[in-house]
Specification:
heterodimer, A: 387 residues, mainly alpha, 2 domains, 13 helices, 67% helix, B: 175 residues
Chain lengths: 387, 175
């Protein structure tokens, strides 16, 4: 991004109003203004603005007026202003033809077929390394696969405590509520990885010992969904009490409590089904799959906000991750090779989820979203629903 | 680059600079005040009073950039003072705290008038320009964040310069 190092009067004027010029740049600007009447006149205006905005009272008033204008004005006074759904410049209109539509459809069919075939080949090649012998597979996914899963989870969890991909902070002075919300989100997100690590660590340990890891694994699997629900509620509801509003987070607490209760019920039912007690069977694992899938789907759905700005294509594997949770209901009946493939796909999707959330935290997308929520900019319903 | 000619002595050069600055302030005051608010004599008086301030209070300042910076600040206050004397203060003073000292009150009124001009100009800008300048000048965000907030893929800095130019033009004609 260019800066007014060379003589650029427009850049220098902007820098002066923003109060970002160095002493050398200021000198250059004032000298030039003394020699140029037009620049002098503009500098008079820029200097007056700078002086006015340096007074906190006037700055706050300007912020309030502009904010009120944006919220009330555009609909009434700027009928042609771009909607929030069209923040990017609109591409030039091109006439679409039926042939082009058909061609696009055929092309995507071919591309999808080829990509999925290639994907399956890669998956089968990778999965074959875990199969004991062709056609004679072990009873389930081998311990080493669980170990790989656990190792990846541990690695991705550990990265979150390093300086790499550090989340962008929210200044407490300007957005104290958003700052606390971000901390809540990060806590939930890290707990999700802790629980995934516990789940795959348990699976690995018990499988390596030749023992049955279920139904404890089912309960751990159910627990992994709860932090994702937590993250969703942090983004969706006012989750932080404000001074003078101790009950502001009441709906958040209610949602968390109910979701925890539902999760406990689902885990109990899944464990009972796994153990064939109370007249139940493995069909009850389906509820566990739904619970896990909903947790991911709700969270990913929240990422779909235009304020968070996740590219749509990036959401596809995340929704895919939510969908494959349903495989859990008949997972135990799958051939061992299929279990291995499913595990590998789940691992791939899990890494995708990590990359997307890490990007949102590191690039500041979540910060922008939470700050906008605190500022009441997330839409009409957000007036009483700011985080 | 600049029209200040090399002079025989430092004093001659200083007087040339004072004359140059006076010319700039006078032209500005004439352009902005004379059409409706003042006559040519008022503009002359404002320009002259700025030079007097430079001459009497800052005799050690001999650098053109420093002198211009002082003159611009002084001219801004002199113009605001002129408007106050033209009975504009009475309306704004009623809105200011009663306990404020006269000097503070004057600063408040000057800042408020400048902020009013800023807002008046901002509200005439296209919405994207307004949002960009609001984030930059009012919220003091950096360009990387503004680019992300607005979803601009091009050069946000060039866009900011153009918007700021439009803002200055509108503020100049907003009187």
């Amino acid at each position: 991004m260019s800066r007014p190092d060379a003589f650029d009067p427009d850049a220098l004027l902007l820098g002066h109003t923003a109060g970002e010029l160095t002493a050398g740049q200021e000198k250059m600007l004032f000298e030039a203004a003394a020699a140029d009447q037009e620049l002098f006149d503009q500098l008079m205006e820029a200097d007056a603005m700078r002086a006015a905005l340096s007074v906190p009272e006037q700055r706050n008033r300007a912020a309030a007026v502009l904010s009120a204008w944006e919220q009330r004005g555009p609909a009434e006074m700027e009928p042609r202003a771009a909607s929030r759904a069209a923040l990017r410049p609109q591409p030039a209109y091109r006439r679409q033809t039926l042939a082009a539509d058909l061609f696009r459809s055929v092309l995507s069919t071919i591309a999808t077929t080829a990509a999925l075939r290639l994907g399956y080949a890669l998956l089968a090649a990778a999965g074959a390394t875990f199969v004991v012998a062709p056609g004679v597979a072990a009873a389930g996914a081998p311990a080493v696969l669980h170990l790989a899963h656990a190792a990846v989870a541990a690695l991705l969890l550990a990265i979150q405590f390093t300086a790499f991909f550090k989340p962008q902070e929210i200044p407490a002075r300007e957005h104290p509520i958003a700052r606390q919300c971000l901390a809540q989100f990060i806590t939930g997100w890290r707990w999700a990885w802790v629980l995934w690590l516990a789940l795959y660590g348990w699976l690995w340990a018990l499988t390596a010992l030749g023992r049955n890891p279920y139904p404890v694994a089912d309960i751990l699997n159910c627990l992994t969904a709860f932090p994702l629900f937590w993250c969703f509620f942090v983004l969706d509801k006012p989750s932080v009490p404000a001074p003078g509003q101790p009950g502001r987070n009441a709906s958040f607490r209610k949602a968390v409590g109910v979701t925890w209760g539902i999760g406990a019920g689902v885990a109990l039912l899944a464990a009972a089904g796994r153990m064939h007690v109370w007249g139940l069977n493995e069909f009850c694992l389906g509820f566990l799959g739904i619970y896990d899938g909903l947790a991911i789907a709700f969270l990913v759905g929240r990422f779909d906000s235009h304020w968070i700005r996740v590219p749509r294509w990036m959401l596809a594997p995340l929704y895919g991750y939510a969908l494959i949770q349903m495989i859990y209901v008949f997972f135990f009946n799958l051939p061992a090779e299929w279990q291995i493939y499913t595990y590998l796909v789940a691992l791939l999707f899990k890494v995708c989820l990590f990359l997307v959330v890490t990007h949102l935290l590191h690039a500041g997308n979540l910060r922008v979203y939470l700050e906008a929520a605190e500022d009441g900019k997330l839409g009409p319903a957000a007036a009483g629903d700011a985080r | 680059m600049f029209p200040v000619r090399e002079a025989e002595s430092g004093e001659d050069r200083y007087h040339q600079q004072l004359a140059l600055i006076r010319e700039r302030i006078l032209a500005f005051a004439r352009r902005r005040l004379v059409p409706g608010e003042a006559d040519f004599a008022d503009a002359e008086e404002i320009a002259q009073s700025c030079i007097v301030v430079l001459w009497e209070r800052y005799p050690e300042k001999r650098d053109l950039a420093e002198m211009t910076a002082i003159a611009i600040g002084t001219a801004r206050h002199k113009i605001a003072q002129f408007r106050r004397d033209r009975d504009r203060l009475s309306r704004a003073a009623a809105e200011a705290p009663q306990s404020a000292a006269e000097g503070d009150l004057f600063e408040q009124v000057a800042a408020r008038e400048a902020a009013d001009r800023f807002l008046h100009a901002m509200l005439q800008l296209p919405s994207r320009c307004r949002e960009l300048l609001r984030l930059k000048l009012v919220e003091q965000r950096d360009y990387a964040e503004i680019r992300m907030r607005l979803g601009v893929s091009g050069n946000i800095y060039e866009m900011a310069k153009r918007c700021h130019q439009a803002l200055l033009r509108l503020a100049g004609g907003a009187r």
